[in-house]
Automatic annotation (TrEMBL):
HAMAP family: FdhD. Belongs to the FdhD family. It is found in: Cytoplasm. InterPro entries: Cytidine_deaminase-like, FdhD. The gene is fdhD. One of its GO terms (cellular component) is cytoplasm. This is Sulfur carrier protein FdhD. Keywords: Cytoplasm, Molybdenum cofactor biosynthesis, Transferase. GO terms for biological process: Mo-molybdopterin cofactor biosynthetic process. It comes from Streptomyces adustus.
Length: 282
């Protein structure tokens, strides 16, 4: 089975001194996701939590919404010419009553570790397939000071990043700032899928009182995944894309970017941020 990290020889140059040494790298391998035996998608990911990744991917696709929708997930033996199991192909079997949306059956997609489902979904598609309307969730109100403390807590929990320096992370926090779960992966969208998939398997969807924090930028795909999981607040340490902001405004998602130190930009859903508290502190 694939490993999270691998060792490679590297030539190191420091202050004019050349040396040879092994270096620890994050592993990256393809994962093919099949749905009821039919190939659906391939993503480049860090091995580990593959079943959760597949389940979370299908939540964002509008296929799964509850643990009862999922019959089982298995690695596919015989995926290679010699019949061996590479642990790089999984088959997701849905419950008989699950209705498969046309958008899933009509396409076969390749997703990279950087962009997610490139060019796949529109704002209308997300609105029509979302099972957990964020506007209908109980009110969540977060102090800016609490938000400002989350990136350091995310970074402190990144165990593999400390060894490789090459992983994105995504974490779920409660509205009170308690760390619920964290996942690392070469792709930030994979890390989010692993979080959401684990929540689905545990029967915890929708995540209607959660804060999702990601270590990089907030793309449309990440905003989409938050909306599909019923997460009311997405925060990123870097910039959001214009389409992510549009989706947040359309769906009621609170979107925070450039969350660094005590500074942040709120792009949508500012009603969930205690702005008066921030003004008083300023």
């Amino acid at each position: 089975m694939g490993r999270v990290t691998e060792r490679r020889k590297v030539i190191r140059i420091r202050d004019g001194v050349v040396s040879s040494r092994p270096d620890t790298l994050v592993a990256e391998e393809p994962l093919e996701i099949r749905l009821n035996g039919r190939p659906l998608a391939i993503t480049m990911r860090t091995p580990g939590d593959d079943f959760a990744l597949a389940a979370g991917f299908l939540v964002s696709e509008g296929v799964l919404a509850a643990a009862s929708d999922l019959q089982n997930i298995v690695y596919c033996a015989g995926a290679t010419a010699d019949g061996s199991n590479t642990y790089n192909v999984v088959d997701v079997r849905t419950a008989p009553e699950v209705v498969l949306p046309d958008i899933t059956l009509e396409r076969n997609v390749y997703t990279t570790s950087s962009c997610g489902l490139c060019g796949k979904a529109s704002l209308d598609a997300v609105r029509t397939t979302a099972r957990f309307p964020i506007a209908d969730t109980p009110p969540v109100r977060v102090d800016p000071g609490l938000l400002a403390s989350l990136p350091d807590r995310l970074r402190a929990a990144q165990r593999v990043f400390d060894r490789t320096g090459g992983l994105h992370a995504a974490a779920l926090f409660t509205e009170d700032g308690e760390l619920v779960d964290i996942r690392e992966d070469v792709g930030r969208h994979n890390a989010v899928d692993k979080l959401v998939g684990r929540a689905l398997q545990s029967g915890d969807l929708p995540l209607s009182r959660s804060i999702l924090l990601v270590s990089g930028r907030a793309s449309f795909e990440l905003a989409q995944k938050a909306v599909m999981a019923g997460i009311p607040m997405l925060a990123a340490v870097s910039a959001p894309s214009s389409l992510a902001v549009d989706l947040a405004a359309e769906t009621g998602l609170t979107l925070v970017g450039f969350l660094r130190g005590s500074s942040m930009n709120v792009y949508a859903g500012e009603d969930r941020i205690a702005l008066r508290a921030a003004a008083a502190q300023g």
